[in-house]
Amino acid sequence: MKVRAYVGSAGYTDASISGYVNGLQAERSPGSLLKPFVYGLALDQGKIIPQSMLSDLPLRLASYRPENFERNFIGPISAEHALIRSRNIPALQVFRMLDDSSLYSLLRAADLSLEPEDYYGIALVLGGLGISTEQIAELYGLLGSSGTFTKLSYLEEQKERELKERPVKLLSPEAAYLVRDMLSRNPPALGRFRSRHIPWKTGTSYGSKDAWAAGIVGRFVVVVWLGDFRGASNPNLVGRDFAGPLFFSAADRMMSRGVIPETPMTPGLNLKKIEVCALSGALPGPACTHERESWFIPGVSPIEHCTLHQSVRVDPVSGERACPGEEGEERVFEVWPSEMQKLFTRVGLKRNTPPPYKKSCGLSVSASQKISILSPEEHLEYYLEEHRPLEISLVASVPGDADTVTWFANDEVIVHQQTLQPAHWTARAGTFTVRAVDNLGRSASVRVRVHSRAS
User: Fold this and answer.
1) How far apart are alpha carbons 319 and 54 in whole angstroms?
2) I want to staple 337 with a disulfide (CB 3.0 to 4.6 A). Which of 280, 289, 315, 397 is the partner?
3) Cα 162 from Cα 146, distance rounded (Å)
């Protein structure tokens, strides 16, 4: 963490670009640069492994509809690919898995000056705070230092003094290594680096005001910020397109001076590789047919088994699902949540989903298949607006064998809908138990508070 090179302006004496301003100390929006720490915390808390399957699907949080940078959705995506492709929706999904305040606490421990946590909400993940290039360098330094946070040092005496201070451990060595390993699979901005494995990440702030690239080259942290000191936007300010090539130009110069970019795995880490289902990212079940490797932290990482692949008895004559207890041909199908199946249907992608039960069957409920409510959310506060009704999206994730969902507010029916159809609730002030019940009898509920604006 000794500073070896530092350029705070493109031209100190150039008044036309405010060259006398030190851009590396200015607080700017980091765009997506904080996402690696969301994933690092999730790895440490046993919420995910690198191959855990996340959902890149349309999301509505009260009146807010977050989007990806590319303004599209790609459905199921592994945590590793979601990070290196910088997808916003999966990052928010992981953030919402975390223990309360953990990202905020990490940033506070990294000596950032922050507003109260409620000021940021989920915007903390997507760059909704001010942070300097120097602070980004310190954060990325902890990824290369086995999760230990250290301040930047500009003088040898300062470094010696700080070495005597107690280091701050913000991530485990295992999580720090796994984040570096995931980021090292991010395709380089310059083609000749494809054979290298340099952990790096880009960021582009809202309104294209800041372009970032940050990463680790050997034992060095490299950070690039490009922008206008006056805060003007520029459609060319995209992290991968402009900050990325400059980052790799710096890496190229460093490598010509003997810096080795690869950072080998530190011996003694509590890590092992395991086989997981290639489609769900969970431990393979008996019906899984394809597997791939993933890193795993023994005693920490989640150990759920795959429920996406299920063996189903099918009537060989009708092709319908056999009734419980009846004989039939055993076939393996994919049982996707309804919101994922909706995306597949919209883009015309056929999946190997199970056929419906024969009409003569008595329907049964599988304990392994659950329904969950995605919207409304229990931990959000909803407020009525003055001049228009408050419409809250009703979104439930139900197994693919469900046809309909009925929604209730307390004991009042809100709507009866097909699983792939959108639904909304025109809410009034009060406290409600909102329930979703599918046609197979599975149900879930959340407690919702709706406030009048005056309260």
Assistant:
1) 32
2) 397
3) 18
